[in-house]
Amino acid sequence: MKKFVLVVLAAAFFLGIGIKNASADNGLKQGTFGLGVDTASISFNGTKNSNMIIHGKYLLANDLALTGGLGLVVHGADDNGTDIGIEVGVRKYLKVADFAPFVGGVLAYTSSNDSNMTDFALYAEGGAEYFLSRHFSFEGAIQFGYASNEIDHGHKGSVFGTNRAVLGANFYF
Fold first, then answer.
1. Which of 14-23, 36-45, 63-72 shows the lowest mean pLDDT across its residues?
2. Whole-model pTM over 0.85
C-alpha cells in the first residue's frame, strides 16, 4: 500500500511540474474543499509507529482552514484487530502563495482494539504547503504537544514534546 501511494505521489509531482501556473494561483480560496492523504510518523515512549490518514480541509477564508481526518487499519493473519484514528483541527496560513507556511492546532484520538490501547493528543503544528498547480499540493508539518496513552485499562503514559511528523499530498476542488 505504501509503495502504491509513493508511486501516485511521484506521478502527481511530475505531472504537477508540467502544469505549473503563475505564482499564487493555488487552491487557497475561501469556500474551497480539499481532500488528501497524510503519512504520520508517531513516536511514543520509545516506539515508532506510522499510519495513513485521509483528511479533508474546508477554507473558511483564504488563509484559515478547518481540518479533519480519519484513519482505519484492519489487521489480518496473526495480528487480528482494528485501529481507528480521528482528528480535527484548525490551520492559519501565514502567507497565501504557492509556498504557504502555516500554524495550527490538532486534536487527535486513536484506538486499537487488538491491544486495547487508546491515545489522546493535543498538538500545535507548524509546517508548509507547496502548490504544484492550482489543485495539487504537498505538505509537511511537525506537531508539538501533549499525548496520553493507555493500554489495557491500567498502564498509562504521557508525553509532552515534539513527537509527530506529517507528510501529505492534497487535491483541491
1. 14-23
2. no
